[in-house]
Write a structure and sequence with these properties.
With 172 residues, this protein is an alpha+beta fold. It has 5 helices and 7 strands.
Length: 172
């Protein structure tokens, strides 16, 4: 009723709910509580993230008629999930998830060793997005804060911006 009274938009509800459920409790944890933002995201969280990301991109690109599907490869050993978005031509499955192989885990660990930038005791790891034809591969650490619905909206904005920027460079 509060959402209706204040005419809160659906995307604003997502921000409010993520803040109340995950982000705010992590800002002031108690001794007995676990910090939600750094917990491992469950399959449900990754699926919600992927669906909102795809739905947002599809909504923004309505005129193109593009539909997306996604697959997440989860590497617990490397501590990352690799989400691949693809233009959906035939598949009726919107989201699937599988665990990585041992060989894939070794490759990811090696990449992780080479990728971070160390500054004193701080480690800076950037999110990696690779645009590959009709696919986008996103390497995301397995931390709950990066798989909340708010992150999906932010990532959709970043992806759309990069697509528009790339299209603008191609025209010039």
């Amino acid at each position: 009723m509060v959402y209706e009274y204040f005419d809160v938009a659906p995307w604003e509800r997502i921000l409010i709910e993520d803040t109340l459920e995950v982000l705010a409790p992590s800002c002031m944890p108690t001794r007995s509580s676990r910090i939600k933002t750094i917990q491992l995201p469950r399959p449900k969280h990754r699926k919600e993230y992927a669906h909102l990301l795809m739905n947002t991109l599809e909504d923004w690109g309505k005129r193109s008629g593009v539909h997306l599907s996604s697959q997440c490869v989860v590497s617990s050993a490397a501590g990352v999930g690799i989400l691949t978005l693809k233009k959906n031509y035939h598949s009726t499955e919107r989201y699937s998830e599988k665990n990585s192989s041992e060989e894939f885990d070794r490759v990811l660990k090696r990449i992780d060793e080479l990728a971070p930038e160390y500054r004193g005791s701080m480690v800076f790891q950037r999110h990696l997005k690779i645009f590959d034809g009709d696919s986008i591969h996103m390497v995301k650490p397995l931390m709950r804060r990066l798989w909340v619905r708010t992150a999906a909206l932010n990532d959709a904005d970043e992806i759309a911006g990069e697509i528009l920027f790339s299209a603008g460079r191609a025209v010039v």
